[in-house]
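Hi team, as promised in this morning's meeting, here are the two structures we talked about. I've kept the exact order from the run log so nobody has to guess. The first one is mostly here for context; it's the second one we should focus on when we meet again. Sequence first, then the predicted structure tokens.
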Amino acid sequence: MLVDLPPVPSPSLAEEIEKFTRIREAAAIITRPNYDWSDMKNKLSNLADESNGHSAEAVVKAERKGSLSKGRGVVGLIRDSLHTSNPSIRSFRLTGNQEGSKKEITVSSEKHQARAFYDSNTSDSPGEVDAKMFTAARRLVEERPTEGFTYTDAE
């Protein structure tokens, strides 16, 4: 069994995406299997499946001096993935111009990940360390802003 959990994005990621006035390029890496496939992601997933691959990457570039749509296509899928409990988009990057800047920048999901920390003592048993780690991880997931998602224990 392969378990591939996508990172939890930090709130700063959505804020950085909103600052774009022009998006020249967007790239998204999706993993399979996953449960929020749209038509575009199905095409990439099928390509990965037919190739016996685990992931696929899509890179979309705007026309010269143009901009990609922020609400549709690959950027729309990226933005939607920020509020999905189990997104198929593993990582992404957007390159373009933000408000007040003439220089292009790249915003990536890898640089904007939420983190969880826990305190552990050297005297803790392995079971205590595991319990603290899982509690911190669960808190991180539960604090993630999602729409229409309810966490339940799978037993």
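And here is the second protein, the one for discussion:
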Amino acid sequence: TTTSTTSSTTTTSTTSTTTSTITTTVPPVVATVTMSEYAMAPTTVTIPAGGTVRWVNGGSQPHDATSGVDPTPDGAWASPQLAPGESWSRTFDAPGTYPYFCTLHPTLMPGTVVVEG
């Protein structure tokens, strides 16, 4: 007489993964304008509504960016006077064409921001 016994073992393994997400909201810099002696480069930038323009003083003298048509500021916005190496950013929410210029070098440094909606 032969007796056979079969034994079976089942092992269950559970793996748990935890994912954590850190979200930082920073307005995207869509365009950068470099100020130098004596020009804005590029002269015209085109961005989508909600986009940001950053002006960087890449020159050796102070510069600014002031909304308006040379030589008359329109009061809509103005950067502080930027020393060499400093930058300033502005976000544009409404579509339109925004002329600006450097009040320190008005006839030499005009520029335009075009915001598309």
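Starting points for discussion:
The chain has one domain: 29-116.
Confidence is low (pLDDT under 50) at residues 2-7.
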